[in-house]
Amino acid sequence: MGQYNRLLRTEYTAGKEYGDLWETVNAGKYWRGEFHSKHKNGSLYWESTLVSPITDKDGTITHFLVVMEDITERRQLESHLRRSQKMEVVGELAGGIAHDFNNLLGIIIGNLDLMKRKISEDSKIQNNLEKAQSAALRGSSLTRRLLNFSQQSPEASSPVNINKIIVSLEDLVSRSLTGKITHETSLAGDLWMVELNTGDFEDMLINLSLNARDAMPDGGRLIIETRNTVIDHITTMGDEEMEPGDYVEIAISDTGSGIPKNLATKIFDPFFTTKDKDKGTGLGLAMVYSFVQRSKGHISVQSEEGIGTTFRIYLPRSLTMAQRMEELAKPDISLPRGTETILIVDDEEELTIIAKTILEELGYKTICVYGADQALQILEDNPGVDLLFSDVIMAGSLNGFELARAATGIRPGLKILLTSGFTGQMQNSKADEQWEKTLITKPYRDVELAKRIRDTLDNGDGNE
Ligand SMILES: Nc1ncnc2c1ncn2[C@@H]1O[C@H](COP(=O)(O)OP(=O)(O)OP(=O)(O)O)[C@@H](O)[C@H]1O
Ligand SMILES: [Mg+2]
């Protein structure tokens, strides 16, 4: 018995548990439990143990039957599962808050837009308005990221110059580093456009910078570089996943600890971390990897222990981008106008006022209602409505997609434009692909609304 006692005891399991074990077994019953133990090589493992007494004819215990099973892997899986369930709950919570918050920001941004256009260019107040607006826009990109996180589905991407994003994040990146780390950037002029979701790209940059920081506890250099690069068949040799073509390359280098060779294949795995439990979740690189995949790009890592690490991300060049940027850069003054009648539906009254004000200034006639039922009533009574502009998520019986369907039932050929703070969110519920594709994201700017309304009136057909 003493022998077993030694055999089973490890410093990682409380003594009380062993007391329990022997008490149970000596009473003639079997005992089942889990121990945390150490292998000879020093690694820890979990073991499920069953101890059952074996007795002779007289009922005296002569032997013990001990069955042990290594359950380390099972316990790890369980803890991963718990973690991802926790993320899911956090996600739902964040999504709920972000949705309301997004509407409030919509009201703020919309009103600032209207104020800006009312106040003369040279007014000193312009400057204040611009600052307020840029803060509100930042808030809206933050809520969008929260919404994105809660949905775990990629938000729409658009063509961007990543140099601009890197510059705009410089401050944040610098502040997240320690004083002993210098931060250098080397950005190529004339960088090609790439198509991606800005928020995701920012997350990637921050994740990689934080990893670099953690790898340089004693200080060092963080270098961010961009350049255009043409990948041909020769360069992709040995890497079947990478298509030859034009790419924008972004390299993030540090002069830190480096990554041991045997870990190189593991670092992108979700939950793989070498950091303390409360320091790292091991999700950083997993998120980076999935973003790069979504953007049809490619990521590689070079690392030398004791020297440093370079992550290189290749993002495919976006060709249609140039024309689209030209479009967006056109001055606001030439917003497209119209005289048609627009039915505006939103359960947030302030938001209908913003849309109404923008559209009336552009020459449109508007009717505002605050719910789907009212909207359908107006469509029955009023043959003059040319376009239905509706929120997707509304209190009441019908959501925007359902309203759109009912509306085209009443008025075939009615033009429809929907708006929502959630993009992609409706995918698993009652989305209607036809309108989801053309959704305008809240909060929207006057330029966007003017363009999208005109576009829908001229090209969109609600009756396809
Ligand atoms: N620049 C780097 N230098 C050295 N090791 C790195 C570097 N980047 C990542 N690693 C290694 O890869 C592991 C996984 O990185 P990842 O970003 O996925 O998770 P984490 O940083 O540990 O946790 P989290 O990002 O969730 O806070 C890290 O724990 C570290 O061991
Ligand atoms: Mg990390």
From TrEMBL:
GO molecular function, a single term: phosphorelay sensor kinase activity
Species classification: unclassified sequences, metagenomes, ecological metagenomes
Keyword set, alphabetical order: Phosphoprotein
Histidine kinase domain ranges (all copies): 96-319
Domain PAC: 31-83
Biological source species: hydrothermal vent metagenome
SUPFAM superfamilies in UniProt: ATPase domain of HSP90 chaperone/DNA topoisomerase II/histidine kinase, CheY-like, Homodimeric domain of signal transducing histidine kinase, PYP-like sensor domain (PAS domain)
Entry-linked PANTHER family: HISTIDINE KINASE, SENSOR HISTIDINE KINASE
Leader sequence residues: none
Domain Response regulatory: 341-457
Any Pfam family the entry gives: HisKA
Keyword field contains Repeat: no
Protein name in UniProt: Histidine kinase
